[in-house]
Amino acid sequence: MRRLIGLTILFASLSCGTAFATTPAEFISAYAGQLGRQQALKARIPQDLRNPSAGQLKECTDGSIALAAALHKDAEALKAMALTGDLAKITPTLINLYESKGVQHLQYGAICSTMAKSPQGGKAYLGAAGAAPAVLAHLAATDRVLFQGMPLIAGSLLPPGSDIRNPKTRLTITKAERLKLVSAIDKAFDTGKHPLPSEIGPNSDITLGSAAILRAFLTDRKGVDER
Questions:
Q1: Is residue 3, in this structure, part of any structural domain at all?
Q2: With a threshold of 0.90, does the pTM exceed it?
Q3: 226 in a domain, yes or no?
């Protein structure tokens, strides 16, 4: 009985500690996967509601609900990670942004649902359509904050105090780990079919731009074991 209790305590301590310890490389791999899944769901959602079809409104409603659920799931996954340094500082902000985006996508889905159920040109229809730009602007602003945090996330792979702008600074991970992260980004965003942008401008998709920055960061630098 004592042995059983001891093993129970041991397994409980492992599940609450070491099992959830997350290295920067593991975090970035998971984060890239999250962004890729979110982007795929976002692609289902029409952004222009000036003259949508019934099918577009249904896809907008269903896609928005699915994306909100994914954001909540991803926020919970971030909460389960045990991080240190700058990642520990930025993660609560990422969680709040995910949760905020989830609420915004539910609002957008409700707009599409109202439009789908209302006579086109009616008061309810026009009111819902008129509310859409503000929600989209809020989502875009949230994405810009996530975009601005990408250098800090990428910098977690550098020695403390390093200049993130210096490509000659070696990463703290090996070449194999570096290439594995590049592969994770390519898989998450299906870059074989949909290449990431080579330049980021005012009209660029923010999430794709974030992935492009992270990928370039990893390909422009060498691992700790590379010559």
A1: no
A2: no
A3: no
